[in-house]
Amino acid sequence: MKKIWKQLPVVVLAIAIMSLSINFFLAPHQVAAGGVNGIGILLEGVTGINRSWTVLGLNAAMLVLAFIFLGRKVFGNTLFGSLLLPLALAVVPDRMLVQDRFFSVVIGSALFAVAVVMLYRNEASSGGTTIPPLIMKKYLGINTSLGLLATDMVVVTFNIFVFGIESFLFGVTSLIITAMVMTYLETGIRRKKAVMITSERSIETIRAALAQHAHGKMLLMDATHGRTGLEHAVLVALVEDQDYPALLKTVDACDESALVIAYNVAEVHGIEQQTYLQRLRRNAQNRPLQIETGRNAA
User: Fold this and answer.
1) Measured distance CA(74)–CA(69) in Å, rounded
2) How are beta strands 231-239 and 217-224 bridged, if at all?
């Protein structure tokens, strides 16, 4: 109960942002970009029924399905958002803040993505078409991303028959922008650079120099040379992107022939724990590498 009350303000804010993205940016330009919100926009265009009533009815039906097929936990996580979204859509007025249709779709889709990520991070949902993919995943083994994309594409396709081909293209554009923004928000904010350093004669000097300059978190581990079979030490460091040039300069000052392998890390969680750096060692061979050497290295 304490956890629910702690998450409540974030869920309310996320639903508010979602309703703003729909009523201020997408719906005024007749762009139905998937989900029950898109169905509400489509039915409003055909019948004149306010989209909030459509969203309420569909969300109620999806809640019943969630309770029957997915259990009480999913039902509980979805209940509040499912009921709050249609209320927010009814309260927030319809206003076209941006006259240009393309920029309005871009802004609206980005805001929608922010709202969805906020809900996901709090194990909440606005309900609607997020429920069927979970049911298909549980009983048919179909990937949830694929199921959600298929559901949204069906909704977006109906733009052709209600608003025309241009609205359909803008709906597809909205889906792409939402997916891109969500991907960046989920994996891009904590991006760092992982750097593997090896030196035949100065690895300890390099380690001491980097520790003195506080260049990220470090782990010293043993490795075996692929050609000679000889064991040598490898230093792994996690640094911010802006700190990488300074790290490279420090390494060059210690040993210009040191081998430096750097690659981007999409997600860094719990960097104080060495278990993450230990996983870097196991996964290093499977990642795209950017290889840099000292100025005098062959």
Assistant:
1) 10
2) antiparallel
Provide the percentage of residues in the chain whose pLDDT is more than 70: 81
In contact, 81 and 127? CB cutoff 8 Å: yes
CA distances from 110 to 26, 41, 107 (A): 11, 18, 5
Output the CA–CA distances (angstroms, integers) from residue 175 to 119, 143, 167, 244, in the order listed: 18, 18, 12, 35
Predicted local distance difference test score (pLDDT) of residue 141: 80
The Cα–Cα gap between 239 and 249 comes to: 14
Q: In what order do the strands lie in the sheet with 231-239?
A: 217-224, 231-239, 192-198, 259-265, 290-293
User: Who's near 269: CB < 8 A, 6+ residues apart?
Assistant: 190, 276
Q: Which residues of the chain have pLDDT under 50?
A: 271-298
pLDDT score for 277: 43
pLDDT at 289 (0 to 100): 38
* Closest among 175, 131, 135 to 152, alpha carbons compared: 175
Structure tokens at 217: 């978190």
Burial class (CB in 10 A: 0-12, 13-18, 19+), 298: exposed
Separation between Cα atoms, residue 137 and residue 119, nearest integer Å = 20
Handedness of CA 273, 277, 282, 284 (dihedral sign): positive
